[in-house]
Design brief:
By secondary structure, the chain is mostly helical. The protein is built from 13 helices and 2 strands. The protein has a two-stranded antiparallel ribbon with strand order 1-2. Helix 7 crosses helix 11 and helix 8 crosses helix 11. The longest helix is centred in the C-terminal third of the chain and has 29 residues. It is elongated. The termini are far apart.
Length: 288
């Protein structure tokens, strides 16, 4: 498309679906015009390098230009992205849809629509209707941690609040998730309960390791802490439990680490506590 058309509104516009991701909306327009999605993106933003890039790092000027082309408000465009989500929480945003809401999919006009909630690795329930999410392959696999559901919803709430910059407790929930998924000292486990790579989370929820060993699921690292939906409640519950216990629990957890993981754990804890002091100081300054 010629560069002279860059600021012109597209002749036919498709309304966005509730909670739709910006790259999904652009891709649906591309399908309508029988063009590659990246071609539509370059028509709108010649400097863009990828669809994922605009989902994560859209600038104000880019939002204004897209709003002109799609005849909407820049706030609507920004609301379809993750630009307000802190960089650290990007660890929990999947590259492709990992889950779906059966209720919303049934009511959607276009099954190719991708919502923001489908990529959020901390969600248990649909952000639009509140229904429990399902794996992308639509397998219904009951979670072995149903007894932790109410506590897990508190963890989901903490991560939601951090992602929307509404509220942050004494430690970043995503940093707590990283700590809980670090490897622990296997010698602190009884021989009959030892597994290949036990995690700190098993100290908070003792049955976690036995269930993971039985299911033979490979756990992700703290660098990319997205768990399958069947295991996600236990991580979210662990986040809520640690947040409620306060900073004192970190020393106890640190004692269960070994070697390089012990050093890595200690550095992250120091970072968490330093950030907490900075945040507390900022709040006090605002009150003076």
């Amino acid at each position: 498309m010629p560069r002279t058309m860059i600021n012109r509104c597209l002749p036919v516009l498709l309304p966005p679906a509730p909670d739709e991701l910006l790259s999904s909306w652009i891709s649906r327009h591309a399908a309508f015009y029988a063009l590659p999605p990246f071609a539509i993106l370059l028509h709108c933003l010649p400097e863009a390098t990828s669809l994922r890039g605009v989902d994560l790092h859209l600038t104000d000027n880019q939002a204004i230009r897209l709003a002109q082309i799609f005849a909407t408000n820049p706030r609507v465009v920004r609301g379809m992205t993750f630009v307000n989500v802190p960089q650290t929480s990007h660890r929990l945003i999947a590259v492709k849809p990992i889950q779906t809401c059966p209720n919303c999919v049934q009511s959607a006009d276009d099954a190719t629509t991708v919502t923001r909630a489908q990529l959020l690795g901390w969600r248990l329930c649909c952000s639009s209707c509140g229904s429990p999410l399902r794996d992308r392959n639509d397998h219904v696999r009951p979670s072995p941690f149903c007894s932790y559901w109410s506590v897990a919803l508190r963890g989901e709430e903490l991560l939601d609040a951090e992602a929307e910059s509404r509220f942050q407790p004494w430690a970043s929930p995503i940093d707590i998730a990283r700590l809980l998924l670090m490897r622990r000292n296997p010698k602190t486990l009884r021989p009959e309960k030892r597994i290949g790579s036990p995690r700190i989370l098993g100290i908070i929820v003792p049955e976690f390791e036995a269930i993971v060993a039985k299911s033979r699921i490979s756990l992700p690292s703290g660098a990319s802490p997205i768990l399958p939906l069947s295991l996600r409640p236990v991580l979210l519950a662990g986040i809520a439990i640690v947040e409620r216990a306060g900073p004192a629990i970190l020393e106890m957890l640190h004692a269960h680490t070994l070697g390089e993981n012990r050093t890595r754990f200690g550095k992250l804890v120091a970072q968490v506590l330093t950030q907490n002091q900075i945040s507390t100081g900022s709040e006090q300054l605002q009150l003076i």
